[in-house]
Amino acid sequence: MTRALGVDVGGTAARWVLLDGDREVARGAAPGATGHPSAAARARLAESLRLIRGALPAAPDAAGFGITGAGIPPDPALTPILAELLGLPETALWIANDIVLAWHGAFPQGGPGHLISSGTGSVGVAITAKGPVVVGGRGTLIDDAGSGAWLALRALDLVLRDVDEGRAETPLHHAFAARIGSLERGAVTAAIYGGERGEVARLAPAVAEAAAAGDARARDLLTRAGEELARLVRALDACAGPAPVALIGGALALHPAIGAAFDAALPGHTITRPGIDAAATAARRALTLTQTRTP
Fold first, then answer.
1. Mapped to the 3 state alphabet, what secondary structure does 92-132 carry?
2. Same domain, 98 and 160
3. What's the domain range around 288?
């Protein structure tokens, strides 16, 4: 049997699984990292991989990676780095961006298919015979509509306008004040600019809480989030042709209004919400790689 390591590298955690053929041997997690090209990012990635290698009960024969920030196609400079860290030949590695890995998890038999992911950010991807087609996903400053960070920022904009104009407080005000500590200028500035985009996205539950308390504007924002994610599907339809749709991501769990609006905006589409084991998918991609190269 061939032992294959699969690693799903995200900003908060790097989750891994070791397979021996179809049998799972071990599973774990290490600190998160990215595929960004900065020296600091490469150092974090190296440390995460060293910890994973140290936790393995047996050395892998091949490895598959889905790495956030790796690029589409992935940065070729990552290949020799990962090969050296794991002591594997470069030909034994399968490397992709994390959203491409997720696509393979959602469509294990291959396409056509459109994957929409909404978590901290949002992005849509289809993989065609010509390669990946990507829409959205350019970051929270200019894009990522329908994501957790987008929801938090859009809602906080409404709240702060109300504060500036002396309007009456609403459940949306109360929910953000509870999560931030207050709506004072310094507290809000620290919450938004004092950390990574993931910190901003962690404010998104305030929108769902306000909607549950009857805040109409919060409910409207949740509906808009679903509609923005549906827009990514229509963009993929235009670029790659109509296809079945898979919707994934942690932001969907915020409130059922997001998924309901998504479905309502896409009549005639086949939509699923698959559960994806990204690390196992990466390991299986590595196994497929070795099998196709076996004489």
1. HEEEEEHHHHHHHHHCCCCCCCEEEEECCCEEEEEEECCEE
2. no
3. 3-106+276-292
